[in-house]
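Exercise 7. Given the encoded structure of a 204-residue chain, write a plausible sequence.
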């Protein structure tokens, strides 16, 4: 059933398509279309953890290849924190293969700064340091001019705001995530940022 919805081709490229949304696209497809249609000559990289949000993002993006035509790739970071980490890595690789999407994974946690480091992440939480390591991997993997898509949604947006508020961030620091953002030269796009998680769950 899934393969009937998905296009295939080198680097996930199914050829050029129209410059306007095809009829019948659902809300999630239209959200991704709006975010990436002007980048159809570039490779779209999806940050793919294997969870519901990133899986839906990968599937929805893949479903648009026949309409737009673009290169598509799945990127996964395995920090090795849990006994299931390698299973998740294998799961992500398998899903990408089933969708006909090239997969690039990183298995090492050696590039995560330690809590005792003197650098910018000294004293930061393990999650914050891991996030920094992931984005370094993404920045190395994504070519200049190409995109990184993440599955952040409206619920994540609210959580980010509340966490910053609890930590006593300044008014400027309370600013939430943006739909499009450039981080150290890496173009990050969050197509689902205005949609609640419940909307994504319907696609899973």
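Solution.
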């Amino acid at each position: 059933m899934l393969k009937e919805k998905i296009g295939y081709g080198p680097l996930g490229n199914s050829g050029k398509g129209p410059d306007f949304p095809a009829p019948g696209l659902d809300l999630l497809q239209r959200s991704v279309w709006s975010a990436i249609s002007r980048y159809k000559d570039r490779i779209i990289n999806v940050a793919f953890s294997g969870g519901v949000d990133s899986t839906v993002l990968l599937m929805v993006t893949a479903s648009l290849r026949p309409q737009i035509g673009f290169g598509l790739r799945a990127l996964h970071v395995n920090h090795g924190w849990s006994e299931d980490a390698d299973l998740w890595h294998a799961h992500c690789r398998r899903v990408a293969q089933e969708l006909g999407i090239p997969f690039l994974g990183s298995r090492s946690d050696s590039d995560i700064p330690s809590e005792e480091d003197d650098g910018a992440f000294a004293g930061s939480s393990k999650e914050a340091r891991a996030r920094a390591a992931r984005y370094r991997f993404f920045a190395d993997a994504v070519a200049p001019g190409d995109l990184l898509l993440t599955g952040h949604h409206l619920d994540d947006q609210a959580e980010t705001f509340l966490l910053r508020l609890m930590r006593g961030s300044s008014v400027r620091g309370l600013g939430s995530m943006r739909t499009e953002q450039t981080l150290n030269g890496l173009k990050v796009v969050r197509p689902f940022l205005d949609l609640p998680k419940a909307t994504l769950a319907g696609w899973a």
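Remark. Residues 34-201 form a domain with the Rossmann fold fold (CATH 3.40.50.620). Students should compare their own answers with the one above.
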